[in-house]
Amino acid sequence: MTTREIQDEIVRLKKEKNICVLAHAYMTRDICEVADYVGDSFGLSQQAAKGDADTVIMCGVRFMAETCKLLSPQKKVILSSPVAGCPMAEQIEKEELTALKETYPGYTMVCYINTTTDLKTECDVCVTSSSAVKIIKKIENDKILFVPDCNLGAFVKAQVPEKQFAFIRGGCPTHLRISVDDVKRAKELHPNALILMHPECHPRVAALADYLGSTTGIMDYAEKSEHKEFLIGTENSIIQHLQYLCPDKSFYPVSKDCVCHNMRVTTLMDVLRCVKGEGGEEIFLSDETMKKAKRCIDEMLRLG
Ligand code: 13P
Ligand code: SF4
Question: 80 in ligand 1 pocket by Cβ < 6 Å?
Fold first, then answer.
């Protein structure tokens, strides 16, 4: 089958079976083209919750499919590739989180959305990369324990100096592959390019950015900017998306190594198998777990 034939079959089956396909912005172009929504994990889950599809297929990683299930408990939610996990979301065990609470009494435990549902059951407030600063500013408590990404944490801390922060040594292995030397080399090659980076990068690297923001933040910035050349310091898949979105602009990777293999594991054939009902993994979470994990998401929505 050609790519086009596979895509047509996916679209046909989606309509026939009332299926919604979600694609994180780090998916490849062939997958994004058949998706009902493309974006960041929380935005996708919110879109799916608003719709009336019976089944939702999440093309992304496991915590994203779990978030989708938390927001749409009545829907059948399928993770397109069962092996797609997020190393950062699984960097800490629930028991370690419980122990941290004892080490930091009186702190509000804030978790990045990139955490397992099990971890979310222990957290007070959840944040996304685009909402973290806004939400944390609004938390009544001045003491914040932020898990698991200390790099995103440092980005928030710099913008919320009035609060006291505690971190653990967690982070995204993909974004941490970008080094200061990578940025310098890329800038030498493209001296007129603006550097757009994700706050999951190491703070020494992030300090060299002209703009720091979430994936959707980076995409919006590049689209609206009058500038013509950009160096992209986040997962390299968005370079191709940006190139289609803004054909008159040029986009270059800061590092050839900023590739998330977990995000790249899903193929168009996986999506076809899922819509046929032959592939992926259905997400099951107990009512008790969903109730507990949803609290920190509801708190984010209340504060936001
Ligand atoms: P955002 O899409 O929320 O910016 O997150 C980046 C990421 O690493 C997703 O796994
Ligand atoms: Fe996880 Fe980083 Fe991959 Fe996102 S890019 S899924 S945070 S490892």
Answer: no
Mean pLDDT of 8-31: 97
| Strand (E) or helix (H) holding 38 | strand 37-39
Binding site membership of 40 for ligand 1 (Cβ less than 6 Å) = yes
**What is the tens place of the pLDDT at every residue in 84-105?**
999 999 999 999 999 999 999 9
CATH number of the domain within which 40 lies: 3.40.50.10800
**182 & 255 share domain:** yes
In a domain, 291, yes or no: no
Round the average pLDDT of the chain to a whole number and report it: 97
Contact 32, 23 (CB under 8 A): yes
- Does some domain include residue 298? no
**What's the gap in Å between 27 CA and the centre of ligand 1?**
12
Number of structural domains (the chain) is: 3
**Which whole number is the average pLDDT over 39-47?**
93
* Closest approach atom of ligand 2 to CA 86: 1
Instruction: Kindly state the average pLDDT of the residues 56-85.
Output: 98
If asked whether residues 232 and 204 sit together in one domain, one would say yes
The beta-strand segments (E) located in the chain are 19-24, 37-39, 55-59, 76-79, 108-112, 125-127, 143-147, 164-167, 194-197, 211-212, 229-233, 250-253, 281-282
Query: Is the distance from the beta carbon of residue 85 to the nearest atom of ligand 2 less than 6 Å?
Result: no
Q: Is the CB of 172 under 6 A from ligand 1?
A: yes
184 and 108 in a common domain: no
Report field, pTM of the whole predicted structure over 0.85: yes
Task: State the residue for tokens 């990139």.
Answer: 114
* Residue 289 located in a structural domain: no
Whose alpha carbon is nearest atom 2 of ligand 2? 172
Domain with 34, as residue range(s), is: 3-85+263-284
Q: What are the pLDDT digits (tens) for 201-216?
A: 999 999 999 999 999 9
- Our measurement of the distance from residue 70's CA atom to the centroid of its chain's CA atoms, rounded to an integer in Å, reads 16
Whole-number Å distance, alpha carbon 209 to ligand 2 midpoint, is: 20
